[in-house]
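Retry 2 of 3 after timeout on previous attempt. Resubmitting structure tokens to design endpoint.
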């Protein structure tokens, strides 16, 4: 029996699970000696597939960390000014520039993070050099965010 969406017959799956403990990726049920292509606990369709042992995650993770650092910096600074305003109830001189700079930085870095996460698999499949170049671009964006903040907030 071959599923229309997958090339591997169910017999390969049942042969693989014969005498072998493996958890259902959907519910965690032990699929040892499974007799079909569906989990008996949750009913999800299962497929046997080949995957990479180490799926080249270093560059996507490094890029995500770079973008998250920038978004985190802006987010923490916005939180700081909100807490200070709530505690002191004072009117801060220049707070508008501070809020605009950090809000724009947070939005730009957050949008870049969302795009990065959406393209994660595509990034992972790129050859080594281009993959690391775009990671450097992520970190450069964060550095530019910090430099603009430092120069404009004075």
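Retry 2 succeeded. Sequence:
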């Amino acid at each position: 029996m071959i599923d229309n969406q997958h090339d591997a017959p169910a017999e390969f799956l049942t042969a693989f699970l014969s005498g072998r403990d493996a958890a259902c990726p959907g519910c965690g049920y032990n699929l040892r000696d499974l007799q079909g292509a569906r989990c008996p606990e949750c009913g999800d369709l299962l497929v046997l597939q080949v995957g990479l042992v180490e799926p080249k995650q270093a560059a996507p993770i490094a890029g995500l960390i770079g973008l998250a650092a920038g978004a985190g910096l802006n987010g923490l600074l916005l939180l700081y000014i909100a807490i200070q305003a709530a505690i002191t109830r004072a009117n801060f001189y220049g707070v508008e520039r501070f809020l605009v700079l950090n809000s724009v930085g947070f939005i730009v870095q957050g949008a870049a993070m969302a795009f990065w996460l959406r393209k994660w698999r595509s990034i992972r499949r790129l050859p080594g050099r281009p993959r690391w170049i775009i990671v450097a671009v992520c970190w450069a964006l964060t550095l530019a965010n910090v430099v603009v903040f430092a120069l404009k907030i004075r």
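Attempt log closed. Helices lie at 10-17, 58-88, 95-118, 120-125, 128-152.
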